[in-house]
Amino acid sequence: MIFEGRNRVTSGFRLAARPNHNGIDIVGDDDKTVHAVAGGTVGFAGAVSKSAGGLTWQWGYYVRIDGNDGRKYYYCHLAAGSLRVRAGQRVQAGTALGTMGNTGYSFGAHTHFEVRNAYGTAIDPAGYAGVRNAVGTYTDATDKEDNDMKFLKVTSGKCEVFTAPDVNAVDKSYNGGKLIEGTCYPVQAEVGSSGGYSWVRIFVAGVQRYAAVLADRCRLVTLSPGDAFAACVAQGDAGGGAEELKAQLEAANARADAEARRADEADKRADAETQRADRAEAGEKRANEQAGAYLQRIESAKTALGV
Ligand SMILES: [Zn+2]
Protein backbone atom coordinates (compact mmCIF):
# COMPACT_ATOMS: atom_id res chain seq x y z
CA MET A 1 0.00 0.00 0.00
CA ILE A 2 1.12 3.59 -0.44
CA PHE A 3 0.94 4.37 3.28
CA GLU A 4 1.59 2.24 6.30
CA GLY A 5 -1.48 1.85 8.43
CA ARG A 6 -4.74 3.35 7.23
CA ASN A 7 -5.10 4.40 3.58
CA ARG A 8 -8.17 6.60 3.21
CA VAL A 9 -9.60 6.90 -0.32
CA THR A 10 -11.20 10.33 -0.63
CA SER A 11 -11.89 10.24 -4.37
CA GLY A 12 -11.86 7.24 -6.67
CA PHE A 13 -10.91 6.56 -10.29
CA ARG A 14 -13.61 7.80 -12.71
CA LEU A 15 -16.43 7.39 -10.21
CA ALA A 16 -19.76 9.01 -11.05
CA ALA A 17 -18.90 12.05 -8.93
CA ARG A 18 -15.73 12.76 -10.97
CA PRO A 19 -15.82 10.81 -14.25
CA ASN A 20 -12.65 12.52 -15.51
CA HIS A 21 -10.58 11.79 -12.43
CA ASN A 22 -7.88 9.53 -13.85
CA GLY A 23 -6.33 8.61 -10.54
CA ILE A 24 -7.29 7.81 -7.01
CA ASP A 25 -6.82 10.19 -4.07
CA ILE A 26 -5.48 8.61 -0.93
CA VAL A 27 -4.73 10.10 2.48
CA GLY A 28 -2.36 8.39 4.90
CA ASP A 29 -4.06 8.64 8.27
CA ASP A 30 -1.31 7.01 10.31
CA ASP A 31 1.77 7.72 8.25
CA LYS A 32 2.60 10.42 5.70
CA THR A 33 5.44 8.66 3.89
CA VAL A 34 4.54 7.77 0.31
CA HIS A 35 5.83 4.32 -0.71
CA ALA A 36 6.17 2.85 -4.18
CA VAL A 37 3.67 0.04 -4.72
CA ALA A 38 5.63 -1.53 -7.58
CA GLY A 39 9.28 -1.69 -8.54
CA GLY A 40 10.88 0.07 -11.48
CA THR A 41 13.04 3.02 -12.38
CA VAL A 42 12.36 6.62 -11.38
CA GLY A 43 11.41 8.33 -14.67
CA PHE A 44 10.77 11.73 -13.13
CA ALA A 45 11.05 13.26 -9.68
CA GLY A 46 10.31 16.95 -9.30
CA ALA A 47 7.80 19.57 -10.40
CA VAL A 48 6.92 21.05 -13.78
CA SER A 49 6.52 24.82 -13.84
CA LYS A 50 3.17 26.18 -14.94
CA SER A 51 4.75 28.96 -16.98
CA ALA A 52 6.73 26.35 -18.92
CA GLY A 53 3.35 25.12 -20.17
CA GLY A 54 3.61 21.59 -18.81
CA LEU A 55 0.17 20.21 -18.03
CA THR A 56 1.53 18.15 -15.19
CA TRP A 57 2.21 21.32 -13.13
CA GLN A 58 -1.13 20.39 -11.57
CA TRP A 59 0.56 17.44 -9.89
CA GLY A 60 2.99 19.70 -8.01
CA TYR A 61 5.97 17.70 -6.86
CA TYR A 62 5.53 14.23 -8.20
CA VAL A 63 7.40 11.00 -8.84
CA ARG A 64 6.87 8.84 -11.89
CA ILE A 65 8.06 5.26 -11.63
CA ASP A 66 8.53 3.46 -14.93
CA GLY A 67 7.47 0.06 -13.67
CA ASN A 68 9.26 -3.18 -14.40
CA ASP A 69 5.87 -4.32 -15.70
CA GLY A 70 5.79 -1.64 -18.43
CA ARG A 71 3.24 0.51 -16.59
CA LYS A 72 3.87 4.01 -15.34
CA TYR A 73 3.06 4.90 -11.75
CA TYR A 74 2.49 8.52 -10.67
CA TYR A 75 2.60 9.71 -7.05
CA CYS A 76 1.52 13.35 -6.98
CA HIS A 77 1.16 16.48 -4.79
CA LEU A 78 4.16 15.46 -2.64
CA ALA A 79 5.44 17.97 -0.10
CA ALA A 80 8.09 20.36 -1.47
CA GLY A 81 11.58 19.26 -0.51
CA SER A 82 10.40 15.82 0.59
CA LEU A 83 11.41 13.81 -2.48
CA ARG A 84 13.71 10.95 -1.58
CA VAL A 85 14.46 9.58 -5.04
CA ARG A 86 16.15 10.88 -8.18
CA ALA A 87 15.51 10.18 -11.86
CA GLY A 88 17.29 7.03 -12.98
CA GLN A 89 17.24 5.44 -9.54
CA ARG A 90 15.91 1.89 -9.21
CA VAL A 91 13.13 1.38 -6.66
CA GLN A 92 11.28 -1.60 -5.26
CA ALA A 93 7.76 -1.95 -3.91
CA GLY A 94 7.96 -0.31 -0.50
CA THR A 95 10.68 2.23 -1.33
CA ALA A 96 9.94 5.60 0.32
CA LEU A 97 9.45 8.26 -2.39
CA GLY A 98 8.57 11.34 -0.37
CA THR A 99 5.98 12.81 1.96
CA MET A 100 2.29 13.31 1.30
CA GLY A 101 1.69 17.00 0.53
CA ASN A 102 -0.55 19.58 -1.05
CA THR A 103 1.54 20.96 -3.93
CA GLY A 104 0.14 21.74 -7.38
CA TYR A 105 -3.58 21.85 -8.02
CA SER A 106 -4.63 20.30 -4.74
CA PHE A 107 -6.90 21.21 -1.90
CA GLY A 108 -5.77 19.45 1.22
CA ALA A 109 -2.88 17.04 1.65
CA HIS A 110 -3.34 13.76 -0.19
CA THR A 111 -1.62 11.64 -2.79
CA HIS A 112 -3.09 11.52 -6.26
CA PHE A 113 -2.01 8.09 -7.54
CA GLU A 114 -2.30 7.22 -11.18
CA VAL A 115 -1.33 4.14 -13.22
CA ARG A 116 -0.99 4.14 -16.99
CA ASN A 117 -0.53 1.14 -19.20
CA ALA A 118 2.10 0.77 -21.92
CA TYR A 119 -0.16 2.76 -24.30
CA GLY A 120 -0.34 5.72 -21.88
CA THR A 121 -3.96 5.03 -20.99
CA ALA A 122 -4.92 5.62 -17.36
CA ILE A 123 -6.23 2.42 -15.82
CA ASP A 124 -7.98 1.76 -12.52
CA PRO A 125 -5.13 2.15 -10.00
CA ALA A 126 -7.04 0.93 -6.92
CA GLY A 127 -5.81 -2.66 -7.02
CA TYR A 128 -2.20 -1.56 -7.40
CA ALA A 129 -2.54 0.59 -4.28
CA GLY A 130 -4.16 -2.28 -2.36
CA VAL A 131 -7.45 -0.42 -1.93
CA ARG A 132 -10.88 -0.63 -3.53
CA ASN A 133 -12.03 1.98 -6.02
CA ALA A 134 -14.50 3.37 -3.52
CA VAL A 135 -14.37 6.04 -0.84
CA GLY A 136 -13.36 4.34 2.40
CA THR A 137 -10.46 3.43 4.64
CA TYR A 138 -8.27 0.41 3.93
CA THR A 139 -5.45 -1.13 5.88
CA ASP A 140 -2.89 -3.65 4.79
CA ALA A 141 -3.96 -7.02 6.15
CA THR A 142 -0.40 -8.32 5.68
CA ASP A 143 0.81 -5.73 8.22
CA LYS A 144 -1.20 -7.57 10.83
CA GLU A 145 0.22 -10.91 9.81
CA ASP A 146 3.62 -9.69 10.94
CA ASN A 147 2.34 -9.97 14.52
CA ASP A 148 1.03 -13.39 13.68
CA MET A 149 0.31 -15.89 16.33
CA LYS A 150 3.21 -18.14 17.13
CA PHE A 151 3.16 -21.92 17.27
CA LEU A 152 5.40 -24.34 19.04
CA LYS A 153 6.57 -26.87 16.48
CA VAL A 154 7.67 -30.07 18.17
CA THR A 155 10.70 -31.59 16.48
CA SER A 156 11.52 -34.42 18.88
CA GLY A 157 9.69 -37.12 20.79
CA LYS A 158 11.39 -35.90 23.98
CA CYS A 159 9.58 -32.56 24.26
CA GLU A 160 7.76 -32.54 27.60
CA VAL A 161 4.46 -30.88 28.47
CA PHE A 162 3.97 -29.23 31.86
CA THR A 163 1.02 -28.02 33.95
CA ALA A 164 3.11 -25.03 35.11
CA PRO A 165 6.36 -23.39 33.98
CA ASP A 166 8.28 -25.74 36.23
CA VAL A 167 10.42 -28.72 35.20
CA ASN A 168 8.85 -30.77 38.04
CA ALA A 169 5.31 -30.25 36.78
CA VAL A 170 5.25 -32.70 33.85
CA ASP A 171 1.67 -33.41 32.75
CA LYS A 172 1.63 -37.22 32.52
CA SER A 173 -2.05 -37.20 31.61
CA TYR A 174 -1.26 -36.03 28.08
CA ASN A 175 0.49 -38.60 25.91
CA GLY A 176 2.58 -39.78 28.85
CA GLY A 177 3.91 -36.27 29.44
CA LYS A 178 5.26 -35.69 25.92
CA LEU A 179 4.14 -33.33 23.20
CA ILE A 180 3.57 -35.10 19.90
CA GLU A 181 6.45 -34.86 17.44
CA GLY A 182 5.56 -32.99 14.24
CA THR A 183 2.61 -31.18 15.84
CA CYS A 184 2.30 -27.38 16.04
CA TYR A 185 0.68 -26.17 19.27
CA PRO A 186 -0.81 -22.65 19.42
CA VAL A 187 1.23 -20.39 21.72
CA GLN A 188 -0.93 -18.22 23.97
CA ALA A 189 1.96 -16.34 25.51
CA GLU A 190 5.69 -16.39 25.92
CA VAL A 191 5.97 -16.39 29.69
CA GLY A 192 9.64 -15.54 29.96
CA SER A 193 12.24 -17.77 31.48
CA SER A 194 12.37 -19.54 34.77
CA GLY A 195 14.77 -22.20 36.01
CA GLY A 196 17.03 -21.36 33.09
CA TYR A 197 14.41 -22.25 30.47
CA SER A 198 12.36 -20.05 28.20
CA TRP A 199 8.71 -21.02 28.68
CA VAL A 200 5.63 -20.71 26.54
CA ARG A 201 2.01 -21.22 27.49
CA ILE A 202 0.40 -23.36 24.82
CA PHE A 203 -2.96 -24.86 23.99
CA VAL A 204 -2.87 -28.64 24.24
CA ALA A 205 -6.05 -30.60 23.50
CA GLY A 206 -8.25 -27.82 24.78
CA VAL A 207 -6.30 -26.94 27.95
CA GLN A 208 -3.55 -24.47 28.79
CA ARG A 209 -0.24 -26.18 29.33
CA TYR A 210 3.39 -25.15 29.31
CA ALA A 211 6.51 -26.12 27.41
CA ALA A 212 10.18 -25.22 27.69
CA VAL A 213 11.60 -23.97 24.40
CA LEU A 214 14.68 -26.13 23.87
CA ALA A 215 16.37 -25.89 20.49
CA ASP A 216 16.86 -29.66 20.11
CA ARG A 217 13.20 -30.44 20.90
CA CYS A 218 10.99 -27.68 19.56
CA ARG A 219 10.95 -24.19 18.10
CA LEU A 220 8.63 -21.22 17.69
CA VAL A 221 7.22 -20.80 14.20
CA THR A 222 4.57 -18.82 12.36
CA LEU A 223 2.27 -20.66 9.97
CA SER A 224 0.30 -19.80 6.87
CA PRO A 225 -3.26 -18.70 7.74
CA GLY A 226 -4.63 -22.07 6.59
CA ASP A 227 -2.17 -24.16 8.62
CA ALA A 228 -2.54 -21.86 11.64
CA PHE A 229 -6.30 -22.24 11.58
CA ALA A 230 -6.01 -26.03 11.27
CA ALA A 231 -3.48 -26.18 14.15
CA CYS A 232 -5.78 -24.13 16.39
CA VAL A 233 -8.79 -26.25 15.57
CA ALA A 234 -6.76 -29.44 16.21
CA GLN A 235 -5.97 -28.23 19.73
CA GLY A 236 -9.53 -27.10 20.39
CA ASP A 237 -8.50 -23.47 20.77
CA ALA A 238 -11.89 -21.82 20.93
CA GLY A 239 -10.44 -18.93 22.90
CA GLY A 240 -10.39 -16.31 20.19
CA GLY A 241 -7.26 -17.56 18.44
CA ALA A 242 -9.18 -19.71 16.01
CA GLU A 243 -11.73 -16.97 15.35
CA GLU A 244 -9.02 -14.43 14.66
CA LEU A 245 -7.16 -16.87 12.42
CA LYS A 246 -10.33 -17.75 10.58
CA ALA A 247 -10.80 -14.05 9.80
CA GLN A 248 -7.16 -13.84 8.65
CA LEU A 249 -7.60 -16.95 6.53
CA GLU A 250 -10.68 -15.49 4.89
CA ALA A 251 -8.87 -12.21 4.28
CA ALA A 252 -5.91 -14.09 2.76
CA ASN A 253 -8.24 -16.07 0.51
CA ALA A 254 -10.05 -12.90 -0.53
CA ARG A 255 -6.70 -11.30 -1.35
CA ALA A 256 -5.64 -14.33 -3.39
CA ASP A 257 -8.97 -14.24 -5.23
CA ALA A 258 -8.62 -10.53 -5.95
CA GLU A 259 -5.06 -11.12 -7.15
CA ALA A 260 -6.22 -13.92 -9.47
CA ARG A 261 -9.05 -11.75 -10.78
CA ARG A 262 -6.63 -8.90 -11.42
CA ALA A 263 -4.23 -11.22 -13.25
CA ASP A 264 -7.17 -12.55 -15.26
CA GLU A 265 -8.27 -9.06 -16.23
CA ALA A 266 -4.71 -8.13 -17.16
CA ASP A 267 -4.58 -11.25 -19.38
CA LYS A 268 -7.87 -10.30 -21.01
CA ARG A 269 -6.62 -6.77 -21.60
CA ALA A 270 -3.38 -8.10 -23.09
CA ASP A 271 -5.43 -10.44 -25.32
CA ALA A 272 -7.61 -7.56 -26.49
CA GLU A 273 -4.53 -5.48 -27.20
CA THR A 274 -2.96 -8.34 -29.17
CA GLN A 275 -6.16 -8.76 -31.16
CA ARG A 276 -6.23 -5.05 -31.87
CA ALA A 277 -2.63 -5.20 -33.04
CA ASP A 278 -3.47 -8.22 -35.23
CA ARG A 279 -6.42 -6.38 -36.77
CA ALA A 280 -4.24 -3.33 -37.42
CA GLU A 281 -1.65 -5.56 -39.08
CA ALA A 282 -4.33 -7.22 -41.25
CA GLY A 283 -5.58 -3.77 -42.25
CA GLU A 284 -2.08 -2.72 -43.17
CA LYS A 285 -1.60 -5.88 -45.24
CA ARG A 286 -4.88 -5.20 -47.10
CA ALA A 287 -3.81 -1.64 -47.80
CA ASN A 288 -0.46 -2.87 -49.12
CA GLU A 289 -2.21 -5.40 -51.35
CA GLN A 290 -4.51 -2.71 -52.69
CA ALA A 291 -1.57 -0.42 -53.33
CA GLY A 292 0.13 -3.29 -55.16
CA ALA A 293 -2.95 -3.85 -57.31
CA TYR A 294 -3.10 -0.15 -58.21
CA LEU A 295 0.56 -0.16 -59.15
CA GLN A 296 0.02 -3.17 -61.37
CA ARG A 297 -2.93 -1.48 -63.04
CA ILE A 298 -0.88 1.65 -63.62
CA GLU A 299 1.94 -0.46 -65.03
CA SER A 300 -0.42 -2.31 -67.41
CA ALA A 301 -2.05 1.00 -68.44
CA LYS A 302 1.40 2.39 -69.17
CA THR A 303 2.23 -0.71 -71.23
CA ALA A 304 -1.06 -0.40 -73.14
CA LEU A 305 -0.36 3.25 -73.88
CA GLY A 306 3.22 2.42 -74.82
CA VAL A 307 4.57 4.97 -72.33
ZN1 LIG B 1 -6.65 13.08 -7.71
UniProtKB/TrEMBL annotation:
Domain M23ase beta-sheet core: 20-125
Chain segments carrying region Disordered: 256-291
InterPro entries cross-referenced by the UniProt entry: Cell_wall_metabolism_enzyme, Dup_hybrid_motif, M23ase_b-sheet_dom
An annotated Gene Ontology molecular function: metalloendopeptidase activity
Biased composition, class Basic and acidic residues, residue ranges: 256-288
Pfam families: Peptidase_M23
Secretion signal span: none
Protein origin, superkingdom: Bacteria
Name this polypeptide is given: M23ase beta-sheet core domain-containing protein
Species assigned in the record: Ruthenibacterium lactatiformans
